[in-house]
Amino acid sequence: MNDRLDTLFVTLAAIPGLTVLRDEPLAPRTTWKIGGPAALLVEVASSDALVALVAALAAPAPVRWAVLGNGSNVLVSDRGFDGVVLVLTGALAEVSVQRDAFGPGRHAVQAGAGTSITRLLRTAKDQSLGGLWVLGGVPGTVGGAVKMNAGTRWGEAKDVLHAVQLATAHGLETVPVDALGLAYRHSDIARDAVIASATFAVGDADPDTRDELDRVLAHRKATQPLQLPSCGSVFANPPGDSAGRLIEAVGLKGHRQGDLEVSPMHANWIVNHGQGTAADALALIDLIRERVRAAFGVELRPEVQRFGDFGTLTREGTP
Ligand SMILES: Cc1cc2nc3c(=O)[nH]c(=O)nc-3n(C[C@H](O)[C@H](O)[C@H](O)COP(=O)(O)OP(=O)(O)OC[C@H]3O[C@@H](n4cnc5c(N)ncnc54)[C@H](O)[C@@H]3O)c2cc1C
Question: Does residue 60 have a cis bond before it (omega within 30 degrees)?
């Protein structure tokens, strides 16, 4: 750990609402179960603590940092993350409902960015709220779902989002959904902004679609390899096509690199049989992109976000 991180450890440990951990393994905090440790990992339990933290990361000298949600769309380097990883907990993982906040029958669901999508959906179901079921089965947090504009074949985060609160070195700011540049698995939210909370605008659950969530979850169980660690879809679908179809067409379904395998059930998923590494994952990603480019002239865009230093890794994964 460098001197700046050593000093930062002491500064951050003195801020109420922050829990600071050194050399914290990241693999168990991701759904792919891959990668090395974070030099510092800070659990943040309130918006005040978050604002103080972001300010401390920016001055006197900026330090490398990133937010980790549920780790369901990240590939952590085998060397880990030589900086500060932020995890939102406590009051930043709470959810509340204000009925009729946007007029009769239009309700506000306010959720800290650390809230799991499962908890958000349970609240919606318990309170007979509609709309949010389009995120059914996405194993992330509210922050990760907004940042990635997560979605399913039934809709995406931006369809139900009203606004977010962003924390930057300048404090907290409320930003309406239209200013976030949300598009298919993409947002324009700046790298140095933390989504602190999100407000969703939803109606009452439609009695005709009340069972939709159960149907969505059953469909996923039947079509996705949920029993092995993965990051879900590795690539975004190219316009008008499906990444899984293209990968299957170039014969890579079931292809293995070390302990990682292009899932025989769903070719856009790479599953980890136990000891998979980030180097193996990158090698498979490169191979898939090359083969699909050569066969179809299509450039697949990885959806998964890289965490840490991948610097000089070659195709074979040798540093
Ligand atoms: C089994 C499985 C199924 C999946 N199915 C789907 C699906 O149907 N649809 C879909 O869209 N995705 C799916 N995914 C991918 C993933 O669940 C989504 O992208 C999810 O939104 C990521 O949320 P997360 O909290 O895990 O974010 P992470 O993976 O932890 O982070 C993803 C990105 O968001 C950033 N981020 C996270 N929180 C914040 C915050 N508070 N402020 C700023 N930036 C933040 C991170 O820095 C990173 O860049 C699936 C993944 C798995 C493992």
Answer: yes
